[in-house]
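User: Run a structure prediction on this.
Assistant: Running it now.
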Amino acid sequence: VDAAIRAGINVKNHLIKIYMLSSLFATIAGILYVLRYITGKADAGTAFLLDGIAAVVIGGVSLYGGIGSVWKTLIGCFIILVLENGLRMLGFPTFYKYILVGIVLIFAVLVDQLFPELIHKEG
């Protein structure tokens, strides 16, 4: 933020735009959720939080920040979708998905912490 201010970028305007865009996407997600499930709950999206964080970490984004890309996050999303669909096709109850995602998430964090050179290579 300090570097952007020194470069002459109006950070306050950009933050306002980012928050407005974020609220727009949250509104669209809420409307789509209500249209799909025909009900509204204040804590309706809490189950999606694990999937979102897990997709980012499984995709290789560092917990320390500064490392990662949108494409790696999309790969993490696809990994979670494959796990979820595979468990569903095998007939497992849905709570096994959270157990498996948690195990994969712990593995991804361990790899990030113990072997950072595997993830943070240049190029």
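The chain has a mean pLDDT of 86.
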